[in-house]
Every structure is written in C-alpha cells, then in structure tokens.
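fold-stage: in
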Amino acid sequence: MDVQATMVKLVNFPMMHEQHSRSYRVWAGARLTNSDLKLRFKIEAAAPKEFEQIIFPVSQALAKRAQNLWEETCFECFIPSPKSDAYLEFNGSPSGLWNLFSFKKYRSDRIEFPLQFDSEPKMSFVTKNDRQLECEWLIPLTAIQQGLISQGENHHQFYNIGISTVLNTRVATTYWALKHEGIKPDFHLRSSFVYPIKSP
C-alpha cells in the first residue's frame, strides 16, 4: 500500500485560532513494513505569505535525540500496546531531531529508553517549497519493541495509532490531530489513537 494513498487530513483543535484552520492544511499517513513504521506528514499553506509565517526549527547536520521538540513545529505519533495501557510517543522535528518515549499509562512513568544507532528513528526525506513542507520518518520495529519492553509489555503488535502535528507560527501555536477528545489539546488520550494500521 502506498503511503500517499493513506494520507488523511488532520484538524486543528476546535475554537483555537480558527484563522489557522483556513490558512493551513495538515496531512499525515502511515504504513507498516516488515522492518519499519513509515510516517509521512505534510503542511500546506493557502498562499506563500501564510507559509512564511510558519516557524520551522533550524535544520541539523546531525540527526540526534533531543528534548522538548513539541515546543516548536513538530510531528508526533503515539503507538499503544494492545494488551495494556502502555504506549510510545514519537516526536519528529522537521530539523531532523527526534525523540521516543515509553509510558506505563496515560502520561505516567515516562522512560526515555536507550536505542542502538540502527534502531533510531530517521527522517528519510524532507521537501519544501514556498507553500508546503513534506517529510517521511521511519521508526524501526525494533525501536517499538524495545520501547514496549521498557514498560514490561511483551505484546508488540499494534492496530491503531495517534498521529498529530504541532504547528508553530508567528501568530500562534496550534495543535492538529485526526481526532480531538479532550477539553484542551491533548495528543496522549488513547481514545484519539484512531488511525488504522494494517500488517504488511
């Protein structure tokens, strides 16, 4: 299955900077292979002048793990265990920086578990023009397994994920997801993990 065919439109958190909902469109998609979870994200602006308002982190020559990426424009994915409340949070910056955490349950017992280099998430490509940015991230299945193991979970299959984006502009920071369930922006709510994943 082609990743582009699975792209879905994310929605801005309701009643938050509605002008952004008219000026920007955010898309995301995912595909499972035998070795990776592939994530693709796209940010589109209605016109170049709106695109110029987006604050993108500075590109990094060396992709590495970094903290607090969600404080800037950032792509996110949440991967739940099918057998417990454990889940993983992935942060991928357009700069190439990344992080991956595991949680025992909702926002609790967070672990920044270690990964070998060949298990680290990687941005496979990024393209940018005067109206849009698109990129693809690869999360090795070995990283997902290690993350769930770090929370004592031995079941590594997953069937639905959460996909979301933090969009930071000179006007405001907005929060985009396939589904919003809370009274405030909250990508960690399990009821928002509704993007279906099929076996390769």
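fold-stage: in (second)
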Amino acid sequence: MANLEYSKELMKHFKNPKYVKTLKNPSGIGEVGNIRCGDIMHLEIKVDEKGKGQSKKIKDIGFKTFGCPSAIAASDVVCDIAKGKTLKQAKKITKDQVLKKLKGLPTAKIHCSVLGIDALKKAIKDYEEKNG
C-alpha cells in the first residue's frame, strides 16, 4: 500500500472546505470523473455579467466531490484560486498552482489535482456555449 503523507494545508482544505455548496442558478456546470480511482466531481460557477467575453469574472463558485481527501482538498483549492478571476485567467489554472497551494500531494494522488481543473474548464465551456 502506498504511503499517503498529507500536508497540514491539504488536511485543512479537506476538513473545512470553503466551497462545498450548490449555487442558485449557476452560469455554468462542469462534471468529471476518474474511473481508475472512483473520484467524481461536480463544479458550478456564477459569472458576473459585467465585462465582455473572456474578461468576465467568476463571482461565485462551488463544488461537490465524491472522492478521497486529496480530491476534496484539490477541488476546494481550485475554487479558491478561480474565484474573482476572469474566465481567461481561470482557464490557465495549472496543477502546479494547486499542488503549491496544498503544499504537495502524495505521488499516487497527483491526478486529483487535475480533476478540479478539468471540472472548472467544463463549467466555463458550459457557460460559453450557453452564452455564445
């Protein structure tokens, strides 16, 4: 069995995630899953309609994750990084940013950092498809 050493920062986000919530009338929804590990993620964004195109900002964000501590913590961090960013900036969030904020992840759990990013990108794409 792999040694899973979780950082204090990861445990903080796992035990007290700030963004576990459902938004009323979300602007975009993204859902992803990883069959290999069983993690499933649902992420919603609310976009501030001021501004144009990619310069519109994410004014609220929430997620629900069925998964391990790494998946939950990484989802919370993705939301934390994305909130207040423009759509263009949010699309550029990387796993390295998530890993840095979590102060690392066990090697076997690095894929969890990408799930939240993928769900965010799908939510933005959903919003863009709905709004031309």
